[in-house]
Specification:
Elements (H helix, E strand, L loop, with lengths): L2 E2 L2 H10 L3 E4 L3 H6 L6 E2 L2 H11 L7 E4 L7 H11 L5 E4 L2 H7 L9
């Protein structure tokens, strides 16, 4: 089971630039809105692209998707752990919680 991170902990880590945030929704969801600095990586692409997108297997990584009902972030986190990443956590509440708290989002325009 992947360790969890709270919204406040994640915001502090993003502000301090001590974490790589992974958007497990990808595609048009990522283009529309994502957490600041997040990189898109969906389960189907983890094996092929993780080493390029996340070259440091010891770096702090947090995965997220839309909300607690969305399985994507857990699946991506579990796969990254299986590939040897050692500091992977999941923001279970997801982007809906982040946006609901009025925190900043980015988009591809």
């Amino acid at each position: 089971m992947t360790a969890l991170i709270t919204r406040d902990e994640l915001k502090a880590a993003i502000d301090a630039k001590t974490v790589t945030v992974v958007d497990a929704l990808g595609g048009e969801y990522y283009a529309k809105q994502h957490l600041p600095g997040a990189v898109p990586l969906v389960l189907a692409d983890v094996d092929a692209h993780a080493a390029t997108v996340l070259p440091d297997r010891g770096a702090a990584i947090v995965t997220y998707c839309s909300n607690p009902a969305c399985p994507n972030s857990g699946q991506v986190a579990d796969r990254l752990t299986a590939l040897g990443y050692t500091d992977v956590r999941k923001y279970r509440e997801g982007i809906e919680d982040w946006a609901g708290a009025g925190l900043p989002l980015e988009s591809q325009s």
